[in-house]
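Give me the 3D structure for Phasin, PhaP.
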Amino acid sequence: MTATPDMTTILKDTMAAFPIDASAAEGAFKSTADLNEKLGAVTLTAVEKSSEISSKWTQQTLKSLGEVSKAKAEPTAYMTAMSDFMTGYAQSATEHMSALFDVAQKAQADSLELMTAAGKGFGEKATAAAKPAATKATTAAK
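Predicted structure for Phasin, PhaP (142 residues):
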């Protein structure tokens, strides 16, 4: 009969044959955590500003609706109040949508800047890591 191979020994031998640089993995984890923290800050800032804009817009709309709902002496005054409300709301919507667009545009630009910086840093680290490997390969080839 054949003996069952000891898988623990096989795995240990395999792992020993392919050493892993734990410091590189730790550095990658820290870099990723830093990037995520910065992206999270960009997101939270954008959400905060968007919430402020939406709240202000809602308050203005409710105030304007208060004017529309007041009792009027003349029937035509209701149409005038509704017309004034719609005109004001259209202007308010334009202003607030523009402000929301500016918030989104800034968040996009900040995110792009962070991702570009992270990519550049990754490229520099990869180049630095490749140089010793290239030197070893050249030496071994000679």
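Residues 75-141 form the longest helix (67 residues). Let me know if you want a second pass.
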